[in-house]
Amino acid sequence: MKKDSRNSDFGFFTEPCWPRSCLDRVGPLLSKKDNHMSIVDVNTKLVGLLGNPLGHSFSPAMHNKAFQTLGLNFFYLPIEVVPENLKDVARGISKMNFAGYNVTVPHKIRIMEHIDHIHELATVIGAVNVVTIKDGRTTGYNTDGEGFVQSLETEARISIKGKRHLIVGCGGAARAIAMTMAFKGAGKILISNRTEQKAYDLAGEINDKVRPCCHVVGKDPKEMKSAFQQVDVVINTTSIGMHPDEDRLPMDTELLRKGQIVSDIVYNPAKTELLKRAEAKGCKIVTGIGMLVYQGAEGFRLWTGVAPPVEEMFAVVRAIK
Ligand SMILES: NC(=O)c1ccc[n+]([C@@H]2O[C@H](COP(=O)([O-])OP(=O)(O)OC[C@H]3O[C@@H](n4cnc5c(N)ncnc54)[C@H](OP(=O)(O)O)[C@@H]3O)[C@@H](O)[C@H]2O)c1
After folding, report:
1. 176-232: per-residue pLDDT in tens?
2. Structural domains of the chain, count
3. Does one domain contain both 152 and 283?
4. Total-model pTM
5. Which of 1, 126, 162, 257 is the residue whose CA sits 20 to 30 A from 35?
């Protein structure tokens, strides 16, 4: 039987997570040296991704490339876990040679029942996406909001401190972003959502638990116009504009002002219709790719204790996209 050179070049870790088209694009970025399976040994520190189903996750490729770039004896592997096995798997992993793991859908909330200590920010967000293991003791963090803030501050070259932000949407990602921004000193956070009650609930929770800096924007056109006029940053956190509905817009782009920063956390496509229109109006745009990379980079820092090679991580994610 003819050997499939792509399988042998990339090692087993890429195959369950990526479709063939992704392998073809990432191929040039992963040399034979990147195949960590040939060098995994008893001293290797493992990192896992717990979720179900894991689908086309970019995390194994991104982290393994980062470990390889810095010559760290770490290896990242996807672990599909059904909800009824989460407790056993989390317990087992904490007794093995794991430095930690990422947690994704549907386990981000339930995992909190199975870890020893939860960081303050993850506690107020109410979800954990990174777990570290030190001497058998597990600590849970949420780096989603931090990933967003780092992406915004690096790519738009601003500090979120004291600035006024409008967040459109109020789902899980918006929750992590808004809580983190309040935690890190955002001046004012306005929230608008299709289901208005959810926006009131989140704003109330942030004002009570973090800082009184949140307000809800209703659907009245005058109220919406006034919100766009007063903010420095506009952030789409809804799934509107995501592939395959790429032509859809999450807001009235006529309300955007030249010079405003517009960020869209949708990352497929990277430049959404919202960002194209914002750019045409003279706004500074920030894509969702940065949040994806920086949330991972923060996990990398927590597991390894060293600065992540962010450029190499971006290169892997861009190749997969
Ligand atoms: N870049 C990154 O690293 C990153 C990280 C996480 C998520 N994301 C992306 O962010 C998006 C949201 O993720 P999530 O986990 O927060 O999802 P979620 O919890 O399901 O929340 C979805 C939000 O979108 C709103 N929405 C959905 N369809 C809508 C429509 N037709 N009209 C108006 N509002 C609508 C929902 O409003 P209602 O409350 O009214 O339902 C809700 O506020 C997804 O596209 C996801 O891929 C990106």
Report:
1. 999 999 999 999 999 999 999 999 999 999 999 999 999 999 999 999 999 999 999
2. 2
3. yes
4. 0.89
5. 1
Integer Cα distance of 73 and 54 in angstroms? 24
Percent of the chain scoring above 70 in pLDDT: 88
45 tagged catalytic: no
CA 41 to chain centre: 30
Handedness of CA 158, 161, 166, 167 (dihedral sign): positive
Nearest CA to ligand 1 atom 44: 239
Sign of CA dihedral 222, 228, 229, 230: positive
Asked if 195 and 170 touch (Cβ cutoff 8 Å), the reply is yes
Token pair listed for 316: 């892997």
Q: Which of 32, 87, 95, 108 is catalytic?
A: 108
Expressed in angstroms and rounded, the spacing between residue 20 Cα and the centre of ligand 1 is: 28
In tens, the pLDDT along 51-82 reads: 999 987 899 999 999 999 999 999 999 999 99
Q: Do residue 91 and residue 175 come from a single domain?
A: no
Is 154 in the same domain as 237?
yes
